[in-house]
Amino acid sequence: MSEKAKMGIVVGVIAILFVLAVITPFSIFFIEMDRETRGEDLNKVVKKYESEWKIDLPSDIKVQYNYIADGVKYSYAKFEKEPAELVKTMKEGDAAFETKFKTDMEKISKEIAVKSVIDFGKSYYYLEKSDGNVRFYALYFPSAKAAYLYETRV
């Protein structure tokens, strides 16, 4: 094999490694970005929760943040006014529920946006449902007119 051919192989290998080094970080970025849903897709998220868990979410719900990963859906939403009908189906928050919920949330607690982290220091209401190996939680905080919706495999 001539020196010119050897040099061509070395340059080709270096070019391939360079392309991979440039493409890989962008691929990871777009995969991670896909876990967070924004815009019109947020309305679809609300409809999925309603249909899958047979709950009525008020029409003024505005999803602010949504996170989806393997076996997990997590949404943070705001309301213009208190969702009175939804609250009627909920229980008042308590320590036993918090412990169970926090245990289930450990899977994603370091991955979700800071603005959507739950502050249990304020009074809240919750709804809990399960279907086989899937659990659904809805938490509503009246002082913030905010809800957290969480679905996870257990």
Structure description:
Helix content is 39%, strand content 26%. The chain has 4 helices and 6 strands; from the N terminus they run ααββαβαβββ. The chain has helices spanning 3-33, 41-53, 84-88, 95-105, and strands at 62-69, 72-78, 91-92, 125-131, 134-141, 146-153. Strands 1-2-6-5-4-3 form a 6-stranded antiparallel beta sheet, sandwiched between helices. β5 (134-141) and β6 form a beta hairpin. The radius of gyration is 22 Å and the shape is elongated. Mean pLDDT is 82; it is low at 26-35.
Would you identify the regions where 5 or more consecutive residues have pLDDT less than 50? Answer: 26-35
Radius of gyration: 22 Å
> Secondary-structure element sequence?
HHEEHEHEEE
Strand content is 25-35%
Q: Strands of the biggest beta sheet: in what spatial order?
A: 1-2-6-5-4-3
The major sheet is characterized as: 6 strands, antiparallel
List the SSEs and their pairings:
Blueprint: H1 3-33, H2 41-53, E1 62-69, E2 72-78, H3 84-88, E3 91-92, H4 95-105, E4 125-131, E5 134-141, E6 146-153
Antiparallel strand pairs: 1-2, 2-6, 3-4, 4-5, 5-6
